[in-house]
Design goal:
The structure holds 2 protein chains of 2 kinds. Chain A contains 4 helices and 3 strands. Chain A is α+β, with helices and mostly antiparallel strands. In chain A, α1 packs across α2. The longest helix of chain A has 26 residues. Chain B is α+β, with helices and mostly antiparallel strands. In chain B, the strands form 3 sheets. In chain B, strands 1, 2, 3, 4, 5, 6, 7, 8, 9 and 10 form a 10-stranded mixed sheet that branches. A 6-stranded mixed β-barrel of chain B has the order 13-14-19-16-18-17. In chain B, a hairpin with a 2-residue loop joins β2 and β3. Chain B is globular, with a radius of gyration of 36 Å. Classes of the chains: A alpha+beta, B alpha+beta.
């Protein structure tokens, strides 16, 4: 979900995705390569993202991932169920 | 979609690997931190998402297994050969099952075709009259269309062919096509007595008429009538019964070929079978209820005992309907063949086990390098599956060979009188057969491959690495179970073989009290019988001619209830014969006299009883001069029940006992027999019997020549009585041949199985034997040790086999009297054979054990 959310702002490469999540969450969430790349493969397999090689701003070759229509739909669905879950947890925690 | 992605990715996997590696390297450089974890690990995890590992490892397994087979081709050949042989047998069996039970007829929508029979409260009936057929067809409920057919076994220009009289809509309703000419049309059957046309089946065209290209348009004679051949049916169509039909003629010709009057006029004669096509969406149950209502309504104004009381309704989509009665015999045969497959699997299982144990060290190394158990089982199963493929191919080839050979042997050995009319259903393999062999080979693979695979991977890491498996690891029990199973199955099959052989001998050696040599049975329609009998009697070389209601030995004797004078009602077997019957079969009249021609002609109320009949009916008095009363019976089928014209008859003679029914049947062998007179002009006589002088070889031609003088092809069959008798024994011979073949095969496999296992065990126990010898064991002790081990297992197996045979015996015990399922000798001989074989098979390994040199044996580790 986090990767899809990141990519919904525009195409990015693996390192960029990890950086973005880390910055936005203010270092609360650190994604290691060990979980990032397998996760990206899963997204590729399900056609939620596509990948192509491109040059970065420092003129390095990198694989850019781009979210697909199916990916956006999946993001919506996951966001909804996550919100639902979060609301549920919140209600349990708030009950004295 | 996912699968497609996966495949696309699999094809570019190298590129993918390189890309991924570069990506991760880039990631690391950017993060600038010292590398934690391994790149390979991340790579591995990413790859796992795509599921490549599975494909890769399967490929590896296959390559590895093939390499293994190349190293030990003998093993691979033995396994594939053994399973292939057993699979071949079972596929043969299934092909037959498929042809008769599973494959629907090649007609339009076979699954909507149904037939039905009605019976009255005495359980009689079954066929329908012409007016019933017309009524049901006009009713259009529950069938959209109905056709009528009547079987006919006739002689077409010297060739015995089974055919059918059919209603005009037969071909159009079934959607059966022709390969030449035209089918029968409704117009052919429109006028009674007209429509002398015939459609020949493709099989009959090939086998009986040599595929004569000019047959359409020719004229063929059947029962003295000329028929024009208008068409040859398409090769896949053989009628709707289990016996393939050779020709079809219009029902309107009934009067010309049958003895009775025309169909439409004779509303009482019920000889038609009806097949209807259900309307779409009408369930079988609803149709049955509707038919029963119709049948009851139709017969409501008849006398009570002729009213319909019940109805049987069944599908005619396949030759043999699938129900409890028909599945039983097929299951029994399947079980026999399945047992052979089981023995083969046990054998192969043992081989695999022995080989897997020999590979323990290899497996141990794999385990210690981190191979999971499931991974190892997968490897071993892959090997089994790879062996199953050639086994399936071999099995298929063998089954085709077996079918051809069996067909050849069948036609070569069947008594010629039956061979003349024999027709076998098409046994070409179809998708069901291929599906079966695929399933069976996979099942066999799992049976022989899975157990050893699980067994061998159970070993523990430390011991495995040490190469020490004999201490804790005990596959011996499994091996013993397999061996015992083999011996049990083998002895069961051999016991069945012996029981059948003994039954056959019993039937064979039975003195039937009839002299059959030189006697011919002529079956022909009634209307020509009198003339034929006269002409035959006047022919030089003919000794005696006799008419009989039924010729002997064609099946069970008919029986009826009579009341002997001064006695109680008795159930006796009976027949109606003319005066010539007793001299013809050389049945001596021991007391009194035979029928005179005058008595037979005038149908005088006289009777002759058999010797045992005389004892049974009048135990304390002389049978001659006694009378029997025949209670009146209404409406009977004259083919199965035909009372004489009188109700009281005087016994004039006593004849020597003779076996005239089914030889293997208890009821036909014992009990009373009573003969009533008949003559050549009487209706419903089935046979004219002729005794010829001189060489019997050309009897058929001589009789046929006389009969053709009346009209061409008026007879249906001319059978030598010797062949009729042989026909009764033939089924026993077939069952014996099949079980003997299976039993022999099982014995062979068992011997090789015992030999293999014992040799392996001796190899395993070399060290132990060496120690024993070093401690002073004599050669005799060593042999005894090995042989006793095999004998012990065999004894258990034989015990199981005998128990199984005795348990199955009740299934075979009823009805067929000649089969004695508890025959002591039939048990003893196979038991002895199996035990001897077991001992013999273990002798060679035990000799090897004797030669074990203690020094070498102890040094070998």
């Amino acid at each position: 979900m986090l990767i899809l959310k990141t990519l919904s702002r525009g195409p990015n490469h693996g390192w960029g995705i990890a950086q973005h999540i880390q910055q936005v969450s203010r270092d609360a969430l650190k994604i290691g390569e060990g979980s990032l790349y397998p996760a990206l493969q899963r997204l590729l397999l399900n056609d939620f993202v596509t990948a192509e090689w491109d040059l970065t701003e420092n003129n390095r070759r990198a694989r850019y991932y781009r979210i697909t229509a199916a990916g956006r739909k999946q993001l919506e669905a996951e966001k909804r169920s996550f919100d639902f879950l979060l609301a549920g947890i919140a209600r349990v925690m708030e009950t004295p | 979609m996912r699968l497609w992605n996966r495949i696309r990715q699999w094809r570019k996997r190298r590129e993918f690997e390189a890309g991924l590696e570069e990506e991760i390297r880039f990631h690391r450089e950017m993060s600038g931190v010292a590398a934690f974890g391994s790149v390979a690990m991340t790579l591995e995890d990413s790859r796992a998402v795509w599921g490549f590992g599975w494909i890769g490892s399967a490929m590896g397994d296959i390559r590895y297994a093939l390499r293994g087979f190349r190293r030990s081709p003998g093993f691979a050949l033995a396994v594939a050969g053994t399973i292939g042989a057993a699979l071949g047998l079972n596929t043969t069996m299934f092909t037959v099952f498929n042809a008769y039970v599973l494959r629907p007829f090649a007609v339009r929508h076979p699954w909507s075709l149904y037939t039905f029979t009605c019976w009255n409260k005495n359980g009689q009936g079954g066929r329908f009259s012409w007016s019933q057929f017309q009524d049901l067809a006009a009713r259009k409920d529950p069938f959209s269309e109905v056709e009528a057919e009547e079987p006919l076994l006739g002689d077409v220009e010297g060739r015995t062919v089974f055919g059918e009289l059919v209603s005009g809509n037969y071909f159009s309703m079934l959607g059966a096509g022709v390969s030449a000419g035209r089918p029968l049309l409704p117009s052919d059957a429109a006028t009674p007595g007209a429509g002398a046309v015939m459609v020949i089946s493709h099989d009959a065209w090939v086998s009986r008429f040599g595929a004569d290209p000019g047959l359409v348009g020719k004229t063929l004679h059947l029962r003295g009538r000329a028929f024009e051949v208008v068409g040859i049916a398409s090769p896949t169509f053989r009628g709707l019964w289990s016996f393939p039909s050779g020709f079809w003629i219009p029902l309107s010709m009934e009067s010309a070929v049958q003895s009775s009057r025309d169909m439409p006029q004779s509303s009482q004669s019920a000889r038609l079978s009806l097949v209807g096509r259900l309307w779409n969406g009408v369930s079988a149950d609803a149709a049955k209820a509707s038919l029963l209502a119709w049948a009851i309504g139709y017969t409501a104004n008849r006398p009570p005992e002729q009213r319909t009381a019940g109805l049987e309704f069944r599908s005619v989509a396949t030759e043999v309907p699938i129900n409890r009665d028909t599945i039983g015999p097929f299951l029994a045969v399947f079980a026999l063949f399945g047992l052979v497959l089981l023995v083969a699997c046990a054998n192969v299982s043992n081989m695999m086990l022995a080989r897997a144990i020999a590979r323990q060290r290899e497996i141990g190394i794999r385990v210690s390098l981190g191979a999971g158990r499931s991974r190892l089982i997968r490897q071993l199963l892959t090997e089994s599956l790879l062996l199953a493929i050639p086994a399936a191919v071999l099995g298929f080839a063998l089954s085709q060979l077996t079918i051809e050979a069996a067909r050849f042997i069948l036609f070569a050995t069947v008594p010629p009188a039956f061979g003349r009319m024999l027709a076998v259903s098409d046994l070409a393999p179809d998708w069901r057969v291929f599906g079966f062999i695929l399933l069976a080979s996979v099942a066999a693979t799992l049976a022989f491959g899975l157990v050893p695979a699980i067994q061998t991977t159970r070993s523990r890491l430390v011991e495995a690495n040490r190469g020490d498996f004999s201490s804790d690891y005990r596959p011996a029990r499994l091996r013993s179970v397999l061996l015992v199973t083999q011996v049990a199955v083998c002895s069961l099959l051999l016991i069945i073989t012996a029981v059948v052989l003994r039954s056959q001998n019993r039937v064979n050696t039975r003195d039937i009290g009839l002299d059959l040599t030189g006697v011919w049975d002529v079956k022909m329609p009634e209307k020509h019988q009198a003339e034929a009998a006269d002409r035959l009697a006047a022919t030089p070389g003919v000794e005696v001619v006799s008419e009989a209601w039924h010729a002997p030995l064609y099946g069970s004797d008919r029986s009826l209830s009579i009341v002997p004078s001064g006695g109680q009602t008795a159930h006796v077997r009976y027949n109606l014969v003319s005066a010539g019957y007793f001299p013809l079969f050389r049945i001596p009249i021991t007391r009194g006299r035979g029928f005179t021609d005058a008595e037979a002609e005038a149908n005088l109320p006289v009777a002759i009883v058999s010797e045992s009949g005389a004892r049974h009916l009048w135990p304390n008095a002389d049978a001659i001069g006694q009378t029997v009363t025949i209670p009146p019976v209404v409406h009977r089928d004259p083919y199965t029940d035909r009372a004489p014209d009188f109700h009281e008859a005087r016994v004039v003679g006593v004849a020597r006992d003779a076996l005239t029914g089914y030889l293997a049947n208890q009821a036909d062998r014992q009990g009373a027999m009573i003969y009533f007179p008949t003559n050549q002009r009487a209706a419903y006589n089935d046979s004219i019997l002729v005794r010829l002088r001189g060489a019997p070889g050309d009897g058929r031609q001589r009789i046929a020549a006389v009969l053709d003088g009346i009209a061409p092809s008026i007879y249906d069959m001319i059978n030598p009585m010797d062949d009729v008798l042989a026909g009764q024994i033939y089924p026993f011979q077939v069952v014996f041949a099949v079980t003997a073949f299976l039993g022999g095969l099982a014995l062979l496999m068992t011997i090789s199985g015992i030999y293999g296992v014992m040799s392996y065990l001796v190899n395993q126990r070399t060290k132990e034997i060496g120690i024993r010898v070093a401690l002073g064991a004599a050669a005799r002790d060593v042999v005894k040790m090995v042989v006793s081990q095999s004998a012990r297992l065999s004894m258990i197996g034989v015990g199981l086999g005998v128990a199984l045979a005795a348990g199955l015996a009740p299934l075979f015990a009823h009805e067929i009297e000649a089969v004695h399922p508890y025959d002591g000798i039939a048990y003893a001989v196979p038991i002895l054979v199996v035990l001897l074989a077991a001992v013999a098979a273990s002798l060679a390994p035990s000799r090897r054990a004797v030669r074990v040199d203690p020094i070498t044996a102890l040094r070998c580790d």
